[in-house]
Amino acid sequence: MKKTLNINIGNSIIHIEEDACELLNSYLIEVKQHFGKSADDFEIVSDIENRIAEMFTEMLHTQQKQVIELADVQVVIELMGSVKDFEEESDDEPSAGYTNAGYAGFGERKIYRDTEEAMVAGVCSGLSHYLRMDVSILRVLAVLSVLLGGSGLIAYLILWVSIPKAYTRSERMAMKGEAVNLQGFKRNFEEELSNLKENFRSAGDQMRPFVKHSGSFIAEFIEVLGAFMQGAGKTIFKFIAIIIMISGSLMMVSALIVLAALLGLWDSGTSGIFPLNIVDEAYFTTFVIAVFIVVAIPLLSLILLSVRVAFNSRSVNRMFSYALLLIWLCGLAVGIFYVAKITTEFKEDAEFTQNIPIKSFPVYTLSLDRSRFFSKDDSLRYQLNSAEYTGKIIQTDDRGPFNQPRNVTVRIEKSDDSSPSLTESYSAKGINFETALYHAKNIHYDFMQQDSLLKFGPELHLMKNVNWRDQQIELVLKVPVGAVLKIDRDLDRYLQGYSLWDCGDDHSGDAPYEGVMTEEGLKCKFDQ
Amino acid sequence: MIAENTQTQMRKGILEYCVLLIISRGEIYASDIIAELKSAKLLVVEGTLYPLLTRLKNNGLLSYNWVESTSGPPRKYYTLTPDGVSILSQLDGTWQELSFAITQSKASKNN
After folding, report:
1. What is the mean predicted confidence (pLDDT) over A32-41?
2. Mind listing the domains of chain B with CATH numbers?
3. Distance between CA A343 and CA A345 in Å, rounded?
4. How far is Cα A422 from Cα A353, in angstroms, rounded to an integer?
5. For testing the chain B interface, which of A8, A41, A42, A51 should be mutated: the one with the most B CBs within 10 Å?
6. How many domains does one find in chain A?
7. ipTM surpassing 0.95, yes or no?
8. Does residue A330 have a pLDDT over 90?
9. A175/chain B closest Cα distance in angstroms
10. Confidence tier at A206 by pLDDT (50, 70, 90)
11. How is B71-105 classified by DSSP, letter by letter?
12. Is B10 at the interface with chain A, CB within 8 A?
């Protein structure tokens, strides 16, 4: 396959192959240079062009073909004669001197970017032709200047934009300082042909300037960027791919460990941790496997892709990919089904309240008590001998596994009558009211009064095997007007609608808050 | 070098004379002139003819008409101007003299 051009020569439209066109063009340039000095140059050249057009038309007609080839142009030039032949016939005209001067002028080098020998955009190789320097020296200088402050990068970009690319053969010859005349052209062309024969694989490269004829700087920039990615960038890509591969594999391993833990391969007790305790025990395994599939298969494809990039290996079997996709979709469907199912279990609310009478004291101390009574349930959970521990107090400083979102709120209000009280409101959700109420009733919360000391538990506890269904407790402490409250600052985050930190001129921390119940509600003692 | 130069000079003069002779036979197209010259083994390449025709035309010896062609663009058909005819007759005379001179020179040398 060859690219053809349409040319208008002597008012005829001729289809001509690209190499043939270049030869013809350089011939005509030479003819124009030869006759350029005389006043009739236009007429002579147009006569010659007309005649060439006529010859082409005849050739196309007699040989029954569509396109003028290189051989045809060579025949025509043979018939018309070269500039040398013209000189012989007309040496009384001062053309000889002129043409020699013209050749010298055209023999001078012009600066072009050499995209055929380019690393990036051919700026360095173009400069090397122009300056007659070794290109590797220029490249080393360019890289150094880029590394030392990056000024070279700007210079490179400016040169890239400002220096034209050597598109045509004549431009390439001017770049290399070869005379742009028919002899030089022929030599250049024959050299190229022999190179082509020697190394047939370079044919693609030889064609590159023809292919690249059109396109703006932006298009060229993108193309060069692409080539750079393929070349030097390939190593960077591979590096990234290997990193993705390693980290992906690690994530895969940890996903497998998590899966094993969740499925209870060993007694890790993970199913009690929020948010896993949302999922009902009955379908916990199915749900976890579905989620694992949804997560692991994209991870696996990512790893396979990066392996492919890093080691240029073949792509995975198409059947295998489809199977993976199918499994992933199944996993997704199951996952969505259970998410929807779980969502319905939050449909209904239930709440019940109970009142706890509080003994009257003029001053109360409110504190957060992390110690808790060990119930029978707890001893089962911690696999302790229940006979030994039940009813005893254990101190836990750490908050233990985070198994629920915040679920305890405390409000302090003015008592309507003169007696203090504590109202506990338990609430939970369920698929219907009965289930919701059952969940609410299964809440265990530690509150204790020791004389004037009121101890609040930091969180509520669920019975074993009870799922999280947004169980909450709201504690409303009602104290009569005039009662003094000393509140542990740890309780601040449980208090609703009141901040302990707004009170006190010393924010030095641990000193307990002190406030008095007034008609308008709780007031800081400093505000009195 | 001198031999080459002389040859060129001779060919140049005779080429012009021949072109005028061919055109004098009637209106003629450039490529037909070339065909004629080729059959007379005078012209090597076509490109030489066009500057010559242009020069003769500029000196007022020739004129041309554009004639529509069946295949391709219109063609230039050359004819002799009255000036051209008179110069051709002068050249005829010159050629007779030259021919005589050459025959004479060769004959006297051979004798």
Report:
1. 73
2. 2-110 (1.10.10.10)
3. 5
4. 10
5. A51
6. 4
7. no
8. yes
9. 30
10. very low
11. SSS-EEEEEE-HHHHHHHHHHHHHHHHHHHHHHHH
12. no
